[in-house]
Backbone:
């Protein structure tokens, strides 16, 4: 796998898709992030795609065009689904095989260029959905700077609690309100109470913000109660997304003790596709 | 629907399945709880079933035998799946139609008796799975007696916090560790710290218990951000299960502030089938 990584991340690689060679671009041939997409407003079924330059390569179309064989073809079959759970569960060897195959197929001079050009959809004509059906997600309080800053909002006298430096502080979030960046959502309403007020009132949140986080998609799971060795942890990570953890701070301040935030945090979580 | 409820809950109803008429039994014809099951050790696919006396009526087999028609048949089709999410999403009219049809078919003197006898599996030969693929679950801190008792374990000076009487205190739980009563699980290990200890240690939990709760399966959902009117709330409730909320109190005491319990509560949640 390290050999494949060395090959796909070689900074000298160039693609026949010219926009991928823009040094300012997010999606050079060395990146190739997976997601699910369809043509905007088409009502098509979502399917797997890979960003390359300013385009999305339709993996279902590329697979149908015979672009892959062997383990990469098997992995590509899983990418024809509307969510990538099956592909994510296949594990690092499958991910690596498909990425290597894609990297070679998209390189300048590769003979698949004519076939694959027909499988490209411009990113500005695509819309996206979360890449997996997410059944659980855990929100880690992972930055000491953030924990200190947020802690000061609620506990000016003790922003950082005694456990913080000893274990990962985290809580479960609501999976069903995770959407992509394009998601529209309503400003939440809830109970808020000023410190000196005798009783709370019910009102739209007046203190809405978001924490800017990194989302991690875990691929192969583990049997319940069986730990994953630290040395193996990275091989369970399928990929990363940017994540906005929307938070209604006025609702949170009143509701969060003793069991943590609920309605202040579960109305929307948005991720990059 | 009230008419159907009145008919199916009539205390005078009796079933041709004699064990259902035992006044000490959990599953008289007035109850008819839905679940998913298969023959123990058979490796069969799970499918919907209904408890009647000491038996489970196999809904897939009963449907195949032509026991249902109209809306009840449509509902029964959804019960042939390994999880009842589709049936739950159909809403109260579908639930009511199938229950009424089942109630009539199982009554003493009903002509379907010979067909349906072939669709019964003794409960002691059955095994069960959670009735739905659960994508989110919320644990409500709903009993003031419990909140006071648990609060006293962690905050002897202030067991009940000021928000408790104003709003439902709750947090998201881990869906992936929900199993049925038969589930075996490992005693969790985690960080624990005695109040006077200088540092935490990593150890198996020595203070394992469970909270005995009622689990509520919500059927039809609502669009994100659109409230359900209180008057409509009950029609969204598909059904109830008994629930054991397993808790590692020593791990919880150290980890739970400020974001609530995580590893102390997410290693297992068990429900009646």
Residues:
């Amino acid at each position: 796998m390290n050999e494949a990584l060395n090959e796909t991340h070689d900074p000298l690689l160039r693609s026949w898709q010219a926009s991928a060679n823009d040094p300012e671009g997010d999606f050079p041939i060395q990146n190739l992030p997976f997601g699910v997409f369809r043509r905007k407003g088409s009502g098509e079924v979502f399917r797997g795609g890979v960003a390359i330059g300013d385009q999305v390569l339709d993996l279902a179309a590329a697979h149908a065009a015979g672009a892959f064989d062997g383990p990469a073809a098997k992995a590509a079959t899983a990418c024809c689904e509307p969510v990538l759970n099956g592909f994510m569960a296949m594990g690092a060897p499958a991910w690596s095989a498909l990425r290597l195959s894609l990297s070679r197929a998209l390189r300048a001079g590769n003979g698949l260029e004519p076939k694959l050009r027909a499988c490209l959809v411009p990113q500005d004509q695509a819309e996206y959905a979360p890449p997996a059906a997410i059944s659980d997600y855990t929100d880690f309080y992972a930055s000491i700077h953030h924990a200190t800053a947020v802690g000061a909002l609620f506990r000016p006298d003790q922003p950082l609690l005694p456990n913080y430096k000893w274990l990962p502080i985290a809580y479960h979030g609501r999976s069903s309100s995770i959407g992509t960046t394009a998601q529209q959502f309503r400003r939440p309403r809830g109970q808020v109470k000023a410190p000196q007020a005798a009783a709370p009132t019910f009102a739209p949140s007046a203190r809405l913000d978001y924490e800017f986080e990194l989302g991690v998609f875990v691929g192969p799971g583990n049997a319940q109660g069986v730990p994953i060795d630290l040395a193996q942890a990275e091989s369970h990570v399928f990929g990363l997304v940017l994540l906005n953890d929307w938070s209604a701070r006025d609702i949170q301040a009143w509701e969060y003790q003793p069991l943590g935030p609920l309605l202040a945090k579960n109305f929307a979580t948005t991720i990059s596709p």
Remarks:
- Chain A is about 25% helix and 25% strand.
